Each structure stands twice: as structure tokens, then as C-alpha cells.
Amino acid sequence: MKQTEGMTLIVKTVTRISVWMILLYGLYIILHGHISPGGGFAGGVIIALAFLNVMLAYGRGFIKRWVNIGFLHDIESSSAALFLAIGILGMAVGGGFLANFISHGKLFHLISAGTIPILNIVIAAKVSMGLFVVVWTLAIFHLDKGGKKE
Amino acid sequence: MIVYILCFALFLVGIYGALTKRDLIKIILSIGIMGYAVNLMFILFAYKTDAKFAILIKEGINTNMVDPLPQALILTSIVIELGITALLVTLAIRLFEKYKTFDITKIRRLSG
Amino acid sequence: MILPFLIIIPLLAAFLITLISGDKDNWAIVLSILAVISLLTLSIFSFFTTGNETFVYEMSGWKIPLTICLVQDAFSTFMLVIVNLIALTSLMFSVSYIKHYSGTWKYYALFMLMITGMNGVIATGDIFNLFVFMEIALFSAYALVAFGGKAEEYEAAFKYAIMGSISSTLILMGIGVLYATTSTLTMANIAAILPTKDPRIMYWVGAIFLAGFGLKSAVMPFHAWLPDAHSSAPAPISAMLSGVLIKALGIYVIIRFFFNVLGAPPIFLTLFMILGSISIIVASYLALGQWDLKRLLAYSSISQIGFILLGLGIGTKLAILGAVFHIFNHAIFKSLLFFNSGAVEMALGTRDLRKMGNLKDALPVTSATSMIASLSVAGLPPFNGFFSKLIIIIAAVQASHVGYAIIAVIGSLLTLVYFMKVQRYGFRGENKIEKPEIQISLGMKSAMVILAAFCIGASILIIPGIREVTLDPVVSVIMNKTGYIYEVLGR
Questions:
Q1: Which chain A residue shows the shortest CA-CA distance from B86?
Q2: In this structure, is residue A2 part of a structural domain?
Q3: In chain C, what residues touch B27 (CB-CB under 8 Å)?
Q4: Domain count along chain A
Q5: pLDDT in tens, C43-94
Q6: Within 13 Å and on the Cβ side, how many CA atoms surround C339?
Q7: What is the DSSP letter of C241?
Q8: CATH number of the domain within which B8 lies
């Protein structure tokens, strides 16, 4: 049958299986940012690529029906404000802006190193949502219709 | 020594592209190449001969690691390059919408 | 300790504006005005209570060679007062100027990010941190130049963005070479370690930084982006760009690096004098032939930056006093002139000098303040421009650089000529202009009147009693390299 939007049936089926693995891999890199290389920015880019994979395979109309872009925009700006709030909290407890005020824990454990895993998650939220919203805004800009957005 | 000369040659390729190409997208790509060359130069400055990677592992390599500070500087620099590329591509799309061409010799309404 | 708050307050305001604003921008205006008023209060308070002492703030509680430090001494407090004052008047002007654009909360968020970047550049003591804040301020400037949506604005923003990113890549290369030589990033530590290394590295890094930061501050061989960018931006953004951005990102970092870190080597001072004099003469000639008001003001900015660079290059105490005072004066009267051009453009709809005429009855506040600002730039006695240019010329003669003094005098005469052209064609011309239907609002008028009052009143900074409090600590901080190292590292 004729496809109306997006790519072929093979791409859609493979994307339905593989996008969860991409999300899982990104989450692994974010959460292990203080033990192995990676961290907030690299994991955030991978999660943004997972969303982008869905957008490329299923088309812009699918994303517009099922994803609320305003909600992603709110996640992005509130996580940026949350980063500053953690920094100010460090200054209020004592020891300077962005001080590491939670206990450091044992070496090589998943929950250790103070505020660093929390900041990794916050940064990943901002980067992934920001990157996806930027590419989405570029994608819905119709050049051939004289620059009108949909 | 030869690695530094090659890294500088990559930087010169980027500058050549930014100065002589007439297409907007090629200028943006050349600026990206210049950014890659400077990032590579930072990593080359951080290398010590016969040193191990700078990650703590449980079996304990605790001396003679490569310098980890330039690697953190590179992460910041890559994020800045991402931002500037996104901004330049958006400007290129808007310029194509207004001027109907990507040729910079025809985008010259402001002069004098 | 106020130093982290100078960066936290505008950054928090920018993120909250993005979070709260929907279609209307009332909350954006309230948040941004609150943020800038609190910043101005903090900087004036710190200027008057802690004038001579140096404060160092280490981030995250680590000690100096391992962390980013924020340094506040007399010079950075002086620049902070200038930046926040111009930011407040620009925000007052833009509340009603921006209303006919769309998506205005984005303007306020980008404006707050630009103030964050500039405050960060002035307050920091770590060289990579300076690069990061400089990039934050520049991204907001690239986006704000293209805010209007016309074709020329996109072209000017693209030109500015390409040239800015080439120079930023050069600066990053210079930072890499400095790190490889001294293995530290704190500027005071670099100043202590660099004399023990090969002197050729100092010349190489100095040349790279002069090219990189020279493009940010628009000295003559690197000026080509400025006329397009400053004439295409909206008027309050042109005032911010031309009044404070090219000084906070360009001249401030050049002074900090060449005088406090490298210790003012004589070859660079000679280069400053040569580049400054080329800027003065060539930019004045190019400004004489312009008929577009904002383009003429942009070329005039290049010329006045040449004066500041000439004063820095002479290098004596009196010359640096003149240069620092000229930074303050130029910020005030150039912003006032750009506000006037914005008011004329909003009322009459044109920027061409041949179409403006006798504006004394149509726009009384605008033409009166533009007369005050033009007389200040040209350098007539009771206004502040006269004193700063006179000090630079006297210092040039005292250091036996008579040729450069003659060039500065010719530059002043050419400045007088083209500003008389602006007054004769633009504000006191022959066309009869009736009262426009778009009125200039109270916010715009009060911003212009405040800056005009500063134009007249800033001359008191030269009187010997007040000068010891305000300008002399700045000059002694600039000329004292060992004092800077001791204050930052010796605590």
C-alpha cells in the first residue's frame, strides 16, 4: 500500500525495535558519567538522536500528532534553572558556588561522587531536548512555500 | 614532530576553505574543519610518551597518566562549535529564502 | 561576596524568561528590569565601598591553581559599572521600541544572556573561562543583530558570525599554546611563570591574541564586520554592541592580557600606536562620505576605538588615564547617538540624512540630546569628550611622540566635520518635517535624558579630588603587573 509519510516499511519496523536500544545506551552513558568516559553531554546527544531517528523514519506529521513540543521546551528551560538552583544550594550550604555538598561515597560505586550524577542528568535533559527542538524547528520550515511554517 | 605539522596543515586547509570558497555551506564546513584542527592540537599537547589513559580502574594505574585537563577543555569547545554550526545553518536557510542563492558574491546588498 | 551574583542573576533571569513567557511578554519585561536594576545596584555599591582592594572568589571551594577564580579589582569594577549602566538605559529604551517586532520574549532572553557573557568576561580570572563567557556574549549578539527579519540583517549577521568564529578559533589556538607552555590556566599564574620561558613564545601568543581580540574590538585591519552589523541591528542593540560589547570583549581583554599578564612589552605598544592611528584617520575619512546615519555612527566607533588604542600604546600614566576615561565617555555618548537614531527611525521611518530635516519642533528631546552628544564626540569644552581627548594628546606630546599627537588632532578635527554634517543635514536641515503620528514614549525619552545628563556631568571625574577615588586606582591596577600577581596568588 502507498505510504503517505516517512520512510519505507523496513525502516519503520527496524526503528520500532532499535530506538529503545539507543535510548538505553544513552541512559547508560549518562548514569555512569562519573565512573567511565561520557557524562551528561555525550549521553544527551545520543538521546536526542533517538528522537531524531523516530522523526526521520515516521515523518514530521507523526511527531506533531504524538509529541507535545511545548512540553519538551518546558523541560529544557526548567532543567537549566534547576542547574543554577543546585549551584546556589551549594553556595548556601557553604563552600562556594557549585560546591560538592553531598557526601562523596565509596569509589567506583554507582551512587557516589556527590552532586556529579545529579548534574549529569540535568545537563543531559537540557542538551537532548534543546538539540531535538532546534532540529525540529529547522525541519518544519518550508523553503518552497515561501518560508511559511506549517 | 610530524604530527604537529599535519595538525597545522589541517588548520590551513580550513582557513583556505573559509577564504576562497563561494558557497555558503562550504564556508560553514571549513569553519568546522578549523575547529577540529584546534581540538586535535589540544589533545596532542596533552600526550606524554609511554603514559596510560587517565581513568581510574580497580587494578590501579596510579602514576604516569596523560593530562586530563585538555580533554575537559575539548568537551567545552565541541559544545561551542555545535552551537555556532547550528546558528550558521539557520542563517544560511534564512539567507536562501531571502536572496534565492547560496553564492556569496551575489549576497552583497550592504556595501560602502 | 558579590562576584558570583553578577553571573547568577542575569543567567537565572534568562532561563526564567524562557520558562514563563507565552505569547505576551509582560513577565519578561518585569524580570529583566528587576535583574538589571539589581546588577547596577550591586556594581555601584561595590565601586563606592571597596574601591582599592582586590577580592578573589574561588568556585566550588577548591584552591587557586586547581580551580576557576573570579577576581574583582578597581578596573573590573569600573567596567562593570559602565556595562550595567548602559544595559539599564538600553532596556528602558527597548521596552517600547521592540513592540512592533514579533516574539519579543526571545529578545529579552538573548539580552540577558549577553549581559551574562559580558559580566563574566569582566569578572573572571581564568583564561578559558573568559573564552567561554566571550562565546556566550557573542552568540547572543549574532542572534540579536538578525532579530528584525529583513534581508540585510541576515547578511550582516552571517558576516559577523563567520568573522567572529574565525577569530575565536585563533584565540583558542593561543590558549592552547599558553597552556602547553605554562601548564596552568589562571591568568595570575601564567603571568608569574611566563617570564621564565622562551621569549619567542610571548611574541607568538601576543600576536595571535592581538589578531583575535583585535577583531572583536574592531581595530583597523579587522574592522570589516562592524559597519554592516551595527547599522542593521535594532537601535538599542546597536547601542549595546557599539557602546559596551566591543569594549568589554575587546579592549578590556587586551588591557588585561597585555598589561597585567605579559607586562607591556615595547613592541606591542608600538603596534598599538600604529594600529590606533590608522584606525583614527581611515575610519574618519570613510565616515565623511556616508549618508546613512547608523553607518556613519558605526565608522565613528572604529575611529574612537583608535583613540583608546593610541592612548594605551603610549603607555605612560597620563595616557592610560586618558584612555580609560575615553572608554567611559565613548560608551555614554555613542549609546546616546544610537538611541537618537532609533527614535528618528521610529518616528519618521527613515535613516537617510537627506530625508531628515528640521526636527527641532517635531522631536524636541531627540534633537536637543543629539546636539549634546555630537558636541561631546567632537570634543568641545564643557562636555566630557574634550577632557579625555586632550589628556591623550598631551600625553603623546609629553612622551615625545609628536607625530602621533598631530594624527590625533587631525582625527578630532575630522570627527567635528562629520558630526557637523549630521547636525546640519539630519537635525537642523532644510526639509520641513511636521509632527509625526508615532509618539516617542516616556521610557525612550528618559533613557536619552539620563545619558545626556551623564555627558555633561562626567567631566567632574577629572577634578583632582574626585579623580583619586574613581580613576587613579584603575590606572594603578593596569600598570602594576606584580601587584596583580600578588593580590590573586598571595592570599
A1: A134
A2: no
A3: 162
A4: 1
A5: 888 888 876 778 888 888 787 778 888 888 889 899 999 999 999 999 999 9
A6: 40
A7: I
A8: 1.10.287.3510
